[in-house]
Amino acid sequence: MRRMLAALAAVLGCGLALAGTPAVPAVGTLQFLAEHAVEGMRGGNLSGLALCGGELWAVSDRDDDRLYSMLPDETPGRVWQANSEAFVVPGTPDSGLSWGARTRIWLTGLVRGGVMDFEGVSCDRAGNRYLVSEAYAGVLRVSPSSTAEWLPLPPALLIQARAAGLLMINNAYYEGLAIDPDGKRLWLAAERQRRGLLRVRNDNGNWTCEGACVLLSEEGSILPPPELGSDQPLAVDFSDLVLYQGKLFTLERLAHQICRRNAESGAQERCWSFAAGALAPERRYDLPYGVAEALELDDKGAWIGLDNGNHARADGDVRPYVLRFAAPPEGWLGGQ
């Protein structure tokens, strides 16, 4: 099967290696600084973060019609208030999913809430916000005036993704995205079984693949951090994606780490663990996997948002949280 997928990927222009278990890099440890409960998100389930113009913007995978803005007050223990901005989704995107898949997605969304299943947010310097819909494998652009439109992503994107073994499992499509400041290049993170990185380019409004849509496709399983008390290996994953100073950074939920990657190839360069801070006894959830689903970086550190799915953590709190970690001593771009 792998040979067949690799051959098909090559025919379609997908010049990537179908990797097996990911390489294990040297891992540093991030220093925990503070936590902030978030109030005012109607659906909870904080699933994406982006720093735009001095504000942190958030999305919930249970809300189909609004973004949330928060002022990143770093006072330890300060509760953040989320302010909503409404928009209207213009139908569903034509991303190439079959009629049967779209029907199952629609029915699932009606039962669960959040038909679009927005899982990530990013922004360009013009103030446009980009939301990725995991359910429909599409990207919604919301202008500064709150006008929303689906990006016309190329049909080859889904074709090449599936030829590389990505986007094969319902509820495991795109889990994060990153846009460059000019709004010209867009990266997408496929969640799991297999996980991967993809890229498209905007040529005067025409979104195309830059030769190969897929930069990386890999599989494998790892044990969760020992704090979770599980001896059951689970699939490696990506839960968010950030473009910072020309590098990609992946949020890896199960491993509880952030990894720096080459933006042209997706190759892993350096990783840092946030497990010690996120899995302190009072912050732990009675779940066998991680709940970190949102990532943003700045020069001083990382913001990590938790999608707890309304589960209570050890101290009984069911609100979404954003955790603050210090940047590594050598900076995000230092080290080997």
Automatic annotation (TrEMBL):
The keyword Signal applies. The keyword Signal applies. Pfam families: Phytase-like. InterPro entries: Phytase-like_dom (IPR027372). Residues 1-19 form the signal peptide. Keywords: Signal. Residues 44-194 form the Phytase-like domain. This is Esterase-like activity of phytase. The lineage of its organism: Bacteria, Pseudomonadati, Pseudomonadota, Gammaproteobacteria, Pseudomonadales.
